[in-house]
Each structure stands twice: as C-alpha cells, then as structure tokens.
TrEMBL record:
Residues 4-211 form the NAD-dependent epimerase/dehydratase domain. InterPro entries: Epimerase_deHydtase (IPR001509), NAD(P)-bd_dom_sf (IPR036291), NAD(P)-dependent_oxidoreduct (IPR051783). This is SDR family oxidoreductase. Pfam families: Epimerase (PF01370).
Amino acid sequence: MRAFVTGATGWIGSAVVDELLATGHQVIGLARSEQGGQKLTAKGAAALRGDLDDLAVLQRGADQADAVIHLANKHDWGNPAESDRAERAAVAALGDALTGSNRPLLVASALSGLVAGRPATEADASPAVGPNSNRGGSENLALDYVAKDVRTVILRFAPSVHGRGDWGFVNFLTAAARQRGASGYIGDGSVDWSAVHRTDAARLIRRGMERAPAGTRLHAVAEESVTTKEIAEAIGRSLGLPVTSVAPEDAGSHFGFVGRFFASAMTASSKTTQQLLSWEPSGPTLIEDIDAGAYTA
C-alpha cells in the first residue's frame, strides 16, 4: 500500500515510516521544512511539503495514497484551542478526500478524559464531541466518516510512547528534575499511566492500516499501569538525584505544563487490540528505558 503520513518526521511518525518501508509499503510523508523532506527522501519515502493548515496539500496527499495515517498535531500547550481547531480542520479535510473510497483513515487520539476510576477499553467512546471539545472532537468526527465509506481507525496512544530520543512527557519530567535538583511525583505517587515503546506503537499502526475494520478503536498500550512514583524513582536513579513528593498545589511550579498531565490517571487496556491484530508488544518497558539512560543522553 501507499500511505500518506502526517507527522512523518515526528517522534511516532518517523518510526511508522521506518516500519512501513521495512514491510514493503510506500510512503508519502508530510514535511514542514526542506530538512524534514530530505530526511524522508533519504529513507526512500516521498516528501510532500506543507503543514496542518495547508488543507489543500493534505487532500492532495490523501488523493495520491491508498491509506492515510494522521499523526501530526500542533501540540501548542500555550494555545490549546488553536491545536484543537487545526486538528478538527485537518481530519475533516482528510475525511472529505477519502469519502466514498473505502480507504483507511487512521487518526491519532489520546487516552486522557475517556473514563474515570478504571482503565479505558476500546469499547469506550470518546466524550469529546464538537469543535470546542478536546482535540476538536476529532476522534468522533473521524468516526462519522465510516457512514461515508471511509475505513476509519482510531489510534489511542498511551501518555508515554517511550524510547531513546523521546521528547514527550517523560522528557519534560526529566528536565524538571534536572532544574529542581530532585525527581518529583505528586502526592503519594499512586496515579498511574499506561506506556508503550515507540517501535511497538509503529508496528501496531502498520497492522491497523493493513487489517483493522472500519470504526475500530485501537489502543497503543503495552503496559496498562506504571505509577507516577515508579516513573519519578527511575528518573531519580538515572540522574543520581533524590526523589520527593510534590504537593498537588505545587505541581504547576515544579513540573511546568506537564504537571497537570502527571496528576491525571491515564490508563487503558489493549486486550481487544492485541487479539484483533495479533499484536504482542515486545519492546523495553518504560522503567527499563529510563534506567538504560534513554532520557539522560
């Protein structure tokens, strides 16, 4: 298959491009810069210059492909409304381009805010509906295109998609520990996160593109629960720093923007995903990655 990948030079997207090429697929990658385009062509992928606001470019990429994997997001933590607006517009543009084709549209989503008090499952619908909701309600918007003959597949990622070179949440937690001279967890550290290694996530996405039915929600989750205290202790070990509890009211000043995520339980099961796609995560665990120095290089 020929896949159009947004976010193709990003943390997850670059691993997906590698996985697709290694398994015989062709790739068109969205590249915001000349340097990004060169990285893609060096791998053997085609590059299409543009960004999430170039809706005509997004539709051109979709028109040229057998499948679309939408992973890009502005992640503007200072202006989340702008990220949500751009995400909804991009999904609508891609969905419109694929309408009536029965081609796959894989859309990245998240586990935050799905349910409270238990791990989320693939059967749990996202409560985010409409343009003013989380991520612009893009998950439900994408699923609306199933009725328009688009093979929509939702990709829900664990809050930590980890590995060497990760610039996500654990990277920010590590930076905060360096700055503060101590690795912190909030309260008693019992809040827990799910996690998945980057290569396992890429393999899941490729299998979802190949075989997941329309309307499927997939959970890129290898470890259902890792406590925030365990994460903080591993960061402390890797940096040779003490580990301390941070009062909830001080989380913002200690951790920065990532503090509100670190205070939130984001866990999910991937049992249905694993059974559906015969997907068995095999990469290192989050704690193993931290202990091996993935976040201290």
